[in-house]
Amino acid sequence: MKTFQEPFEKHFHSEITTISKFTDHPNAPKEGTPEKDAAAAMFKAWGKSTVTKAGMTDVVPLFLLNLDRTVEDGLWANWPPMPAPIKWGLINLAGAWHSGWWKFASCDAAGQPQELWAYRAADAKAAREAETKA
User: Could you state, in order of their start, the residue ranges of all structural domains in the chain?
Assistant: First the structure.
């Protein structure tokens, strides 16, 4: 993973720079115009439609349970913007449908990083083996 980190980081940062330059494209809607409002409404509807189609009991909990709310000193702790009861319901109620899957999530239901399941399972196995030998 360490060998992949630096190339990925460079690629990711250059991708963000490239995408952000689209705002300067001659065909990009200008701020304060009806075209800009129409584009914003279209992207908002597209985003909502995408999440809705993604699967409320599988994809949405997967997304929310891998969203580290501590990153960048909690800058993204309240992202995506939605009422707390809705977020709680998507994680805890809708997520209950496939509850066995979420042991693999990188964060707990509160968005706090947790030790990956593979490590937890290996530790538990080692503890059982140590008990058996004792």
Answer: 56-134
